[in-house]
Amino acid sequence: MKNMTLVMLENRQGYGERLAAFISRQTDSPFNVHLYLEHPIGDEQWEKADVVLMTSSLMDLYGEKVSNEKVILLDEEGRQAEGENEYVYKYQSAVKIYGEILKCCADKGNAVVPMGSKGRKWMLTGIYMPVSSEKRVRSVLEFCRKEGENQKVLYLNLEPVTCFTDLLESGGRKEGISEMIYYVKQRQDNLGTRLGMMVTRAEFDYLMPSANPAEIEELNAEDWQFCLEQLYQGTVYDQVIFDFGAMLPPAVLLEAGDRWIIAGDETEWEEKLTERFISIVSRMTEGSFEERVLKIREVVP
Fold first, then answer.
1. Is-contact 229 262, C-beta < 8 A?
2. pLDDT of 60-75, one tens digit each?
3. What is the pLDDT of residues 183-229, one digit of tens each?
4. d(CA 157, CA 177)
5. How many domains is the chain built from?
6. CB 141 within 8 A of CB 167
7. Does residue 135 share a domain with residue 50?
8. Which end of the chain has fewer CB atoms within 10 angstroms, the N or the C?
9. Residues 246, 182 share a domain
10. The domain containing residue 52 runs over which residues?
11. Nearest Cα to 176, choosing from 221, 138, 210, 139?
């Protein structure tokens, strides 16, 4: 039952609309979300809010109102904001933002927030490989094995052309990314259950690659957002790893990824491609993308 009014104060239309839509669509969400992109809002809108989610760059504009106990700051700097406000890091996955908002409300003793919905452990990791090679692919698969030692991991390879399964025991499965894309397009609410029947289980779970590379490019922002919601709500995975190889991932995933692993920067050419990738993505996301980037040698010795 949606019995709380969440006023969202944002200055980026695309980001605000995506996050507002995500929060509104959650089945357990107690929030009626009202997004405002023009500031400052009037006292009437402010008074109606049970929770105010304010991007931190608007703090000066709202002055003393920022110190109100119902304000949760979307921190753009990746550090705790000054003062007594609750804060949530802005450039992380919508899943984590939503979970942290629920936790902030529950910690304040708000009885209408479902206590069982504080957000579970979940991570979204992206892989970028400037130059594909067997060595690089093996390093990615070793990373997945390492991550799978103490948690449940799902690896989704979305490269147009890949043969990573030649390095694994595929178990003869034929269903994979193509079927996942079909169910996403059909908005199947039981996507998580269907994936559970399609994955190949090993040290980490994975889906067979796409049979038609063009279908990956046909997914739009809403498709990807629906996919992420279903992966979080309908599966038991602690971490989902998206591998796009040398492709430029969609903006939704670039913004949602908790971290991005660069698989290969040992040659001068790889370094140039990596620098170019980070520069392009930083402009696309308008956020602190570089802070979420790790080199694979930092996680797989």
1. no
2. 999 989 888 899 999 8
3. 999 998 888 888 888 888 889 999 988 888 789 889 998 899 889 88
4. 8
5. 2
6. yes
7. no
8. C
9. yes
10. 4-117
11. 210
